Amino acid sequence: MINSVILSYTTFVYFASFMLYLLMMVMGKDVFGRLASILTIGALIAHTSAIILRWIESYQFDMGHAPFSNFYESLIFFAWAVVLLYVLIEWRTKNRSIGTFASLLAVLIMAYASFSGVDSRIQPLIPVLKSNWLITHVITCFIGYAAFGIAFCLSLMYLLKKVDDPKRKGILLKTIPDSDILEELNYQVIIIGFVLLTLGIITGSVWAHSAWGRYWGWDPKETWSLITWLVYAAVLHSRMMRGWRGKKMAILSMIGFFCVIFTYLGVNFILSGLHSYAT
Amino acid sequence: MKEPNNKRGANILWNVFSSMKLTLALLIILAITSLFGTLIPQQQEAVRFAQGLSPRLHQFFELLGLFDLYHSLWFRAIIGLLALNLVICSVNRLPTTLKLFRAPSRPDRSKPFEDLPPQRNFLVERGIEDVGNRVADFLRNQYGRIVSKSTPEKNYLYAEKGRYSYFGVYLVHFSILLVLIGGVIGSVFGFNAYVNILEGDTVDSIILTKDMTSKRLGFSVFCEKFNVDYYDNGSPKEFRSDLGFLVEGKLAKKASLLMNRPITFGGITFYQSSYGSIPGKAYLSVQKEGSDLVESIVRVEIGDTFSLPGSESQIQVVNAVSNLNEMMGPAALISVKSREGEEIRFWVFQNIEKLRNQYPEAMFQAPRMNPSSFKPYTFFLKELESRFYTGLQANKNPGVSLVWFGCVVMVAGFFMTFFTSHRKIWVRILRSTDETKISVAGRTNRNPLTLEKELDLVTSQLHKLLD
Ligand code: HEM
Question: pTM to 2 decimals?
Answer without folding.
Answer: 0.85
